[in-house]
Amino acid sequence: MDRLTSLFSSPLFLGFDHFERLVDTISKAQDNYPPYNIEQIGEYGFRITLALAGFERKNIRISLENNQLTIRGQQESDPDTVYIYRGIATRQFIKTFVLADGVEVKNAEFTNGLLYINLLRIHNEKEVRTIEIDEPTVITKLPKQIEETK
After folding, report:
1. Which CATH code of 2.60.40.790, 2.40.400.10, 3.40.50.300, 3.30.1160.10 fits the domain covering 31-124?
2. pTM exceeds 0.70, yes or no
């Protein structure tokens, strides 16, 4: 991990500080609950499946912010239930996935204790832009905005 961190601190990678933070977040998230699968669906599709036995749709929240897909779940336990043995996890969880640029969330479905999140990679051809080099200009007078701040 040190090699990756030092790579993004290079002056050749301008504006990648957000990516370095995401890598740091992912490296700290080692919790395996809830279990999940990631499948390739066709050429441009993906599906994340989380096993959420005992959860109800109303106890699950999905959000997407800055290419970070976050699934949160919290079960409501019945205070009158007396367990002799409790092997089914009922704890709250937060599961985070970092999506690549161009991957969007198509929809989410919850069926029989499984949460399906369908993703689609938008297939856009990258645009190549040519940057024109302007003729040098001699500044004889400060721009008006700079003069006003003096």
Report:
1. 2.60.40.790
2. no
